[in-house]
Amino acid sequence: ALSTSMTALTTALLAVIASLKLTFARSLSLGSAIGDILSKPALRYGTPILKTHLDDDYHKWIEPTIMYACRAVSMSIAFWLQQIISAVHSAVQA
């Protein structure tokens, strides 16, 4: 009886962990994809502006910084959207 209940508990725990990992991976991939899409116009319009305001020594960091910022913002948005989706899904189920 104890062995069966421990097996069921472990199985349930692994299912929850797998579900959370899948949700996390889905949010990361969505954020990365949105960041890649947003980085192209951000690079086009942001690079000339930053080149006029920054010293020549920092010009090599403009592109990676803009791309990282776009990905960071888009991942934050993706996690926020995932929270809303999860909340709506929980509200519909219960």
What does this entry look like structurally?
There is one protein chain. The chain has 94 residues and is mostly helical. It contains two helices and no strands. The protein starts with a helix and ends with a helix.
Structure keywords:
94 residues, mainly alpha, 2 helices
Short description:
With 94 residues, this protein is mainly alpha-helical.
Number of strands: 0
- What is the residue-averaged pLDDT? 89
The dominant shape is: elongated
Major sheet description: none
List the total number of helices: 2
The first-to-last residue Cα distance is 31 Å
Radius of gyration, CA atoms, in whole angstroms = 21 Å
Structural class: mainly alpha
* Percentage of β-strand residues: under 5%
pLDDT < 50 stretches:
none
Helical percentage: over 70%
Order of helices and strands: HH
Topology:
Elements: H1 2-53, H2 62-93
Helix pairs in contact: 1-2
